[in-house]
Known about the structure:
Chain A contains 13 helices and two strands. By secondary structure, chain A is mainly alpha-helical. The longest helix of chain A is centred in the first third of the chain and has 34 residues. By secondary structure, chain B is mostly helical. Chain B contains three helices and no strands. Chain B is elongated and about 50 Å long.
Amino acid sequence: MYGDTGKISTRQVFFISAMIAVVYASRFTLTLTATREGPTAWLSPFISVIVLALIFLIFNSLYRSFQGMGPVEVLKMYFGKGLGMVFSAVLLIWMTFLIAFITRLYSERAVTIFFPNADINIFTFFFALVAGFFVHFKPVIIARVGEIIFAIIFVIFIFSFLALFGLVDVNHLLPVAPKSVPTLLYCGIGCTGVWGFGLYTFFLTDHIDYNKVLKKRSYLYYSAFVLLFTVLIQVTTIGVLGASLTGKAILPFNDAIKVVTLFDTFNRLEVFFTVIVDLVDYVTIAFYVFIALSLLKGIFHLQDTKPFIWVYVLFIAVLSNAITKSYFELEPIVRNILTLGNLAFMLGLPFLMLVVGKLRKVI
Amino acid sequence: MVFVIVLAAGLSVFEIFNFIKQKRQKEIALFLVLVGIAVFVAYLLETPGGISISGFLTRALDLHR
């Protein structure tokens, strides 16, 4: 049904983007907001959704001009040859850093939760090799895998919310005071930065079929879905653990699930949850590598990027070792650099494209 | 990291041989640059203290406060 053109449908991009946004929100938004806002942290996504809607409005105006072009060609079309190349190179460097960061995050999580005494390189190279294997397929196949994972993750999250709701203490979520509004605004923008991890999929411009443009209502559904799930993640985690503990935990949502027992028999459900949710990382990394290779192809005018897959993946695996020495160094990077970088590339760059496009009458 | 260097060398020989057959000089250059940086980073990681990009950024931008 989707593979007629051999390209990803916009609907699939939305599904995968929403899945990545929600999963990364479950990992990072909690520590980001709970440390600053305390009990009112769960309100910050309501601010974030305004910024998200703005991003979609901008993307919606830009889409029609993307037809079949790679990201470098798109940037050149908007900013001219020189500046377009500069933006492409900066985006390539940023994507490489982001991919290395996600690889490191995956292996750090594996070492922290499952195998405390294992060598981290085993997981780094395993993750990189699987990502390299994934990228040999067409993006449309990865998109279908992503759709299946989306369905599984949806069920897992709903189950987690249902299991946690009975344990929520409403006192942990109150009081809501007017003086917390400035912090809410600050954390809300940070929360949009975390959702930004999902929005990079829209840069797969040469692999997306833009002929089936979605209705404007779809953007509303997407925003509502991401908002609802992020608020539920925050409410259940802060409601169960309390804001203070949530702010100090490495993976707060996982810690909240640890409390759940099924029929007083099955414990440690967070391991099952982590294993399933980690599948999203493979789809994320595959899409990010596709974008990075598209950028590499456009910048260096390469005929084919397939011979570069393994060397790029190897490069990423080595670079991920240089990213950090511990999980505790990763958290401030997410809070202070990645959220801002995501906002710059997912809100700043499209906004600049819109302004320049209007001035140069490209759109 | 010896594993990385051996893997990079193996990949290089195989792919560069293909590129030479097809006379694609730009690809050879780019390939060697990527392998070179990977090996250089692998070497830096083995030096005493190693390297940490996030540690450097945290200190440079004063993020730990």
